[in-house]
Specification:
Elements: E1 9-13, H1 19-27, E2 32-34, H2 42-45, H3 61-64, H4 69-73, E3 86-89, H5 93-96, H6 98-108, E4 113-118, H7 121-134, H8 143-148, H9 150-155, H10 171-181, E5 186-190, H11 191-196, H12 198-208, E6 228-229, H13 232-243, H14 245-254, H15 257-266, E7 268-269, H16 275-282, H17 286-296
Parallel strand pairs: 1-3, 1-4, 2-3, 4-5
Antiparallel strand pairs: 6-7
Helix pairs in contact: 10-17
Length: 306
Amino acid sequence: MCARMVPNFAVVGAARAGSTAVIEALRAHPDAFVCQPKEPHYFAFAGQTVAFCGPGDAATINRVARTNRGAFLALFPEEGNESYTALGEGSVSSLYYHEHAIPAMQEINSAMKIVMVLRDPVDRAYSSYQYLRVRGFEPVDDFMLAVALEEKRRSEGWHHLWHYTGMSYYAESVRHYLRSFGQEHVGVWFYDDLTARPETCVNEIYAFLGLDASRVEATLPRVNVSGQPRRKSAQKMIALASRHEMVRAGLKRAVPFRVREKVRAANLRPSAVSSEHRAELIRHFVRDTDELSNVLDKRVPDWTRG
């Protein structure tokens, strides 16, 4: 068996905060390598059996997860391939399950560079709900009811994307990454900046990973967007394709990722959480946001202003 190069960066999340767009921007750089699947979930579940039981979990995370060390490293180029400066992956489970992910990362590469993109916690939770809803996995048509079911679902073994509020607490995870890898190896960006000045943020991430920004035009693709379906009939077809493994695999082979994303996004219109629900939820995150400011030693966006 050929020895493999080991990853030297990980985009760890947060989920629904722009991490997929960052991964695709990195994939476009000629000196960067991103594994496929982009989310092998090795760091969060190394050595474990992944058997989540929420709707669609068997066809998604359970199928793509690589929890065996050899199987994970087989996703990367053979040793001796010096054409890549940065090699990595983008499992958002690594931020949420930091207590498992950090030791697994350090075992693979103690000098790993960590990229985080954090988002308003309520918007992140609502986006996660919408994403699962339009894919046909979320059975509840009321966001706040889905939030109320979160603990029950967690106890029943539904995977992390269903943890709408749980995945929106950041401070503890960020603190542990900073303590474990050091400030020079942990880069934190905010979704607010990513949307306001995407090219600048992409170039900053390139520089953080040691990539020459002049080698490629810095663009941030619009991928994995969420919203309300414009045409329910079209969305039903998209959801059906997502749930049918053979159809999904055939589409992936035949249609490039960015083309599939354009088709999916064209049928979605933007939708925001109501002000009433925001006011109800944001109070849960005030302390965590204040703590995050202390952990990062800088002011975070004013997410908790109400």
